[in-house]
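ENCODED BACKBONE
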Amino acid sequence: MSENRVEVFAGAVVLAVAVGFMVWAGRDSGPSSGTYPLHASFRSVEGIVVGTDVRMAGVKVGSVTEIKLDPQTFFADTTLALRDDIQLPDDSAALVSSEGLMGGSFVELVPGGSLETLAEGDEILDTQGAVSVLALMMKFAGGSSQEGQ
């Protein structure tokens, strides 16, 4: 009878830890209710998916909530959910950046100097798409062989 109590107690502890972990893991998933959408159109969003971080000065300030291809411009139209407490100047830039050679990608916001701010649903006009590391390496390798001729 005492073995059953120990097993029940151990099961309850495991269950409590699992529930605690799920609550902890789910607390930062998806945009919170305190966000507003901004739009940006990129030539390339290689490495960016829905849920990717949006950062400013290395600090997460939002996430990517939608990516779709514009059939007229062939650019990737994205929707970014930004925290309400971040008021971005209307001349700010959005760049697809990488955490390093083997790191993941994220959207980096570079604030401008304007006194006017972007409102909910506005578009960030100054964008820079992803830079292909492979293309850069091919240019570097191809450029060094051309110098010798």
